């Protein structure tokens, strides 16, 4: 059986607030199920094919790194769009989430053109949205993370969840992230996957289904992860009172 290939896009530039932990979580939860995983670090997209990519991951970055990364992504834009439409499991964090849209306007009004893969719009303000966050997701239940972004994102797609505490996509509509086909886009660092095993397993399960690899056991013992998550939720919700 060929391994699950995780394409990690520009790990040298896009790794804010421990986003690399998402790769570690995917690898570890695959290992617990005896599923072989190979991580392919993508630093240059010239000649890159997404044909054998099973999970695509983009972390967050500062505005500068984000614009450098967009140039690399632009070269595979059509492939990436087709793969997302085809259901490739994808996780994009913060800056990685923003540049799937039409544009990102910086606080000084500079317009960074996005990839236009999705109908998403982001603009940034000087006042950043920072702190721990709890959201309620129909698919995953409660999700926790940490956010730190100037960008405010607007779209009409299904979201990752509803904000219970924190900001999410912007400070107005209480929506967080996007869940489009098997793409999960979010403002949550933390990193998000070690804190939210349901999302890690979702990406792995989808990748296995697409490759006809058994995803067993379906459930692992998540008591440690759950206890850690509930402690964060309790603290945040108590802090709000
Ligand atoms: N530069 C973007 C913003 O501040 C993304 C930051 C991030 O990835 N955390 O909105």
TrEMBL record:
Substrate binds at residue 128. It catalyses: L-glutamine + H2O = L-glutamate + NH4(+); beta-D-GlcNAc-(1->4)-Mur2Ac(oyl-L-Ala-gamma-D-Glu-L-Lys-D-Ala-D-Ala)-di-trans,octa-cis-undecaprenyl diphosphate + L-glutamine + ATP + H2O = beta-D-GlcNAc-(1->4)-Mur2Ac(oyl-L-Ala-D-isoglutaminyl-L-Lys-D-Ala-D-Ala)-di-trans,octa-cis-undecaprenyl diphosphate + L-glutamate + ADP + phosphate + H(+). Keywords: Cell shape, Cell wall biogenesis/degradation, Glutamine amidotransferase, Hydrolase, Ligase, Peptidoglycan synthesis. This is Lipid II isoglutaminyl synthase (glutamine-hydrolyzing) subunit GatD. Gene3D superfamilies: 3.40.50.880. Belongs to the CobB/CobQ family. GatD subfamily. The active site is at 94 (nucleophile), 189. The keyword Ligase applies. The lineage of its organism: Bacteria, Bacillati, Bacillota, Bacilli, Bacillales. GO terms for biological process: cell wall organization; cobalamin biosynthetic process; peptidoglycan biosynthetic process; regulation of cell shape. Forms a heterodimer with MurT. Pfam families: GATase_3. Pathway: Cell wall biogenesis; peptidoglycan biosynthesis. Residues 5-196 form the CobB/CobQ-like glutamine amidotransferase domain. The lipid II isoglutaminyl synthase complex catalyzes the formation of alpha-D-isoglutamine in the cell wall lipid II stem peptide. The GatD subunit catalyzes the hydrolysis of glutamine to glutamate and ammonia. The resulting ammonia molecule is channeled to the active site of MurT. It comes from Mammaliicoccus stepanovicii.
């Amino acid at each position: 059986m060929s391994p699950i290939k995780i394409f990690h896009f520009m790990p040298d530039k896009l790794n804010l607030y421990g986003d690399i932990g998402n790769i570690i979580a995917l690898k570890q939860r695959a290992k617990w199920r005896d599923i072989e995983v190979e991580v392919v670090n993508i630093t240059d997209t010239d000649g890159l094919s997404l044909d054998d990519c099973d999970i695509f991951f983009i972390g967050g970055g500062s505005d500068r790194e984000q614009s450098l990364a967009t140039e690399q992504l632009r070269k595979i834009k059509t492939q990436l769009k087709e793969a997302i439409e085809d259901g490739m499991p994808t996780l994009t964090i913060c800056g990685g989430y923003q540049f799937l849209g039409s544009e990102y306007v910086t606080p000084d009004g500079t317009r960074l053109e996005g990839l236009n893969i999705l109908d998403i719009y982001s603009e940034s303000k000087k006042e950043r949205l920072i702190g721990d966050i709890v959201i309620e997701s129909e698919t995953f239940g409660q999700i926790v993370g940490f956010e730190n972004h100037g960008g405010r994102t607007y779209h009409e797609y299904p979201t990752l969840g509803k904000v219970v505490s924190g900001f999410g996509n912007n400070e107005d509509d209480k929506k967080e992230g996007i869940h489009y086909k098997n793409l999960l886009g979010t403002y949550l660092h933390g990193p998000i996957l070690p804190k939210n095993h349901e999302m890690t397993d979702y990406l792995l399960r989808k990748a296995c289904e697409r490759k006809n690899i058994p995803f067993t056991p379906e459930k692992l013992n998540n008591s440690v992860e759950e206890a850690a998550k509930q402690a964060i939720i309790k603290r945040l919700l108590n802090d709000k009172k």
